[in-house]
Each structure stands twice: as structure tokens, then as C-alpha cells.
Design a protein that fits this description.
The structure holds 2 protein chains of 2 kinds. By secondary structure, chain A is of the alpha/beta class. Chain A has 6 helices and 4 strands, in the order βαβαβααβαα. A 4-stranded parallel sheet of chain A has the order 2-1-3-4, with helices on both faces. Helix content of chain B is 69%, strand content 0%. The chains are: A alpha/beta, B mainly alpha. The interface between A and B is medium-sized, with 19 and 22 residues.
């Protein structure tokens, strides 16, 4: 199997993160590595930097990882998680400015075709273009 | 700089305990204009800091600040984790670069506030913690040599929280409320004030 960009889904709600990952897998099966996380360190609604770091490492691909987030805290915590990665991985992970469900499905579909990280991000972010 | 481990520990302990004690108030403020988790999140973060008090107390000040920052990043579970975490990490970084306290407090505080602004992609006037941090920075710049600078910081922080009441939020969950965010104090501004007051009080109480 050729390497494809990995996808990470970060929601405040673990249910939304899992549901989004289910929808992604329905589209791309196991062609793309998908990881997800949701919830604060006590399991309530929120996000958790250490779980995000784990998810990035689980979805890791030499072609990089695209992260899809829901609301503000998920974005800020994802950016923080990226900065805390090993230095050789840091530049290979992007947080996409895109709606979480549509963005994840479109990013994963693009990734399945072997596209680069920049291409995957661009397709997801087309959804946010005004 | 040299800070006695006992002083550092008592300072961090006082600040953490004050934040934990104000959790219900922070949550109430956040329920009015946000998702209502600010008190719980800050409490979780500063309880984790208390859990590392012995480690923190044994570290040089720059490393201690970084440990506090990293602990908050890893445990808070909301945007305030990276924001407060970044404040302490950046302050620690500034101290590592041959600056020392109290001499370079203005520079160190400015680095920390600038880093929070970058992390949140936010400026003053958006109804956030920066609306306390920037006024306090200005007070420090102008009045750092005054004998009553600690009281001036306390007053500035308290007044700055009040000035967030008529502001309309343009960052964070409160921004979703638009004009309805007007009329409430910002929870992040309040938690910054609580922290600053706790540090001021602990500094004054030093033998």
C-alpha cells in the first residue's frame, strides 16, 4: 500500500469524533489512517492535548497528518499538540480550517487518492472559502 | 535568579489554591456567556500544578514556570489550557534567556502576554484575558519602580475586569452570542485577575 496522508478528528465530544471517523471509514475503508479523540482529561466535553498527540502518532504517515477540529478549544489544543511533537514531525501536521464532518470526509477522500498534505488541506478548506 | 524553594512553593501554592477556590465564580461567569466549563477546567489544571508542587519547588524559576505551563497545557482541557500554559511557558523561556526577576519583570511579563496574544490570535478589546494582561503590563511599564507597584497591579487588574463588562466578545464561545455578550464580565479576564491578585498577595506576605 502506498502512503497516504493520515486524518485526525478532534471534537469536544468523543461521540462526535467517533461518528465522524465512522463516516470517514465508510468512504475510504482502511486506505487512510484515521484517528480520533474527544473529551477533556476527566471525560467531560472538551479536548485534551495528550490524547491529540496520541491520535496524531496513531494516524502518522510519512506524507503527514491533517487535523479536523470542531470549535475554538479543539483548534487551540490541536495547535499546542502539534508544537509538542518531535521536531521532525511538527512541520508535517496541519490543522485545517474546515467544518469537522464535511472536512474530514473530503480530506480523507482526497488523501485516499495519494494527494499531498497541501492538496488534502486545500480540498478540506475549500468548504470554508466564502 | 535565586528564589528560595520554600518561597517559590508557597507562591505557587497560594496562586493555585486561590484559582481552585474561585472555580464556582469562574464557572458562573462562563455559564453566562460561554460553555460553562472555565471554573472546572482551571480547577483541574491547578490541582495538577499542586500535585507537582515538590517538583516545582525544587526547580530553578525558569524551569518551574515551564513545568507549570506544561502541566496546564496537558490537564486543563479547554482553550484556557494552551493560553495559560503558553503564558507560563513563555515567561519561563524569557527567564532562560539571561533575564532575571525582579529586575526584568516588565520584559518577562511582556514576552508572556505577547505569546498569549499569538496563541489566541487575539488583541486587547476582544473581551478576553488579554484585557487584564495588557493593562497590567502597562502599569508595570509605567510604575514598576514605585514602592506601591504591587497595589497598583491589583487595582489595575480589578478595574480591567470591570471594563470587560460592556465589551462585545469577538473571540471564543462568547463571540457566538454577539451583542448578548455585553453586560457580563469575561471569565478569562476574571481568572487572570484572580491569579495576579494571589501572586501579589503572596509576594506581600513574604517575611
Amino acid at each position: 500500500m502506498n502512503d497516504t496522508v493520515g486524518i485526525v478528528i478532534v471534537s469536544h465530544s468523543k461521540d462526535i469524533a467517533k461518528g465522524t471517523a465512522d463516516m470517514v471509514r465508510q468512504m475510504v475503508g482502511s486506505e487512510v489512517k484515521v484517528a480520533f479523540c474527544g473529551g477533556d482529561p476527566d471525560g467531560g466535553l472538551g479536548t485534551n492535548v495528550s490524547l491529540i498527540i496520541d491520535a496524531i502518532n496513531n494516524a502518522w504517515s510519512p506524507k503527514g497528518v491533517a487535523i479536523l477540529v470542531d470549535l475554538g478549544g479543539a483548534e487551540t489544543n490541536s495547535e499546542m499538540a502539534v508544537e509538542m511533537l518531535e521536531s521532525d514531525r511538527r512541520n508535517m501536521v496541519v490543522v485545517c480550517n474546515a467544518p469537522i464532518v464535511e472536512g474530514a470526509v473530503m480530506a480523507a477522500t482526497e488523501a485516499a487518492g495519494g494527494s499531498s498534505l497541501d492538496e488534502v488541506r486545500a480540498v478540506a478548506e475549500e468548504l470554508s472559502a466564502s | 535568579m535565586s528564589v528560595e524553594p520554600a518561597t517559590l512553593k508557597s507562591l505557587v501554592k497560594a496562586a493555585a489554591e486561590q484559582v481552585i477556590a474561585s472555580a464556582p465564580e469562574l464557572t458562573a461567569l462562563d455559564q453566562a456567556i460561554g460553555d460553562g466549563d472555565h471554573g472546572t477546567n482551571m480547577k483541574r489544571g491547578f490541582e495538577a500544578v499542586l500535585g507537582k508542587l515538590d517538583t516545582i519547588g525544587a526547580q530553578p524559576l525558569d524551569e518551574a514556570l515551564k513545568t507549570i505551563g506544561k502541566t496546564l497545557v496537558m490537564t486543563v482541557g479547554g482553550a484556557s489550557g494552551p493560553l495559560y500554559g503558553t503564558f507560563f511557558l513563555a515567561a519561563g523561556d524569557a527567564l532562560s534567556q539571561k533575564r532575571s526577576l525582579p529586575e526584568d519583570i516588565v520584559e518577562v511579563f511582556a514576552s508572556a502576554v505577547g505569546a498569549v496574544s499569538n496563541r489566541g490570535r487575539s488583541q486587547a478589546g476582544e473581551k478576553t484575558m488579554l484585557d487584564v494582561l495588557y493593562p497590567v503590563l502597562e502599569t508595570l511599564k509605567a510604575e514598576v519602580d514605585r514602592p506601591d507597584v504591587i497595589e497598583r497591579v491589583r487595582v489595575t487588574a480589578r478595574e480591567a475586569v470591570e471594563r470587560t463588562v460592556p465589551m462585545q466578545a469577538s473571540k471564543g464561545r462568547a463571540a457566538f452570542l454577539g451583542a448578548r455578550s455585553v453586560g457580563h464580565a469575561d471569565p478569562g479576564a476574571r481568572s487572570s485577575c484572580v491569579l495576579l491578585h494571589a501572586v501579589c498577595n503572596a509576594l506581600e506576605a513574604r517575611p
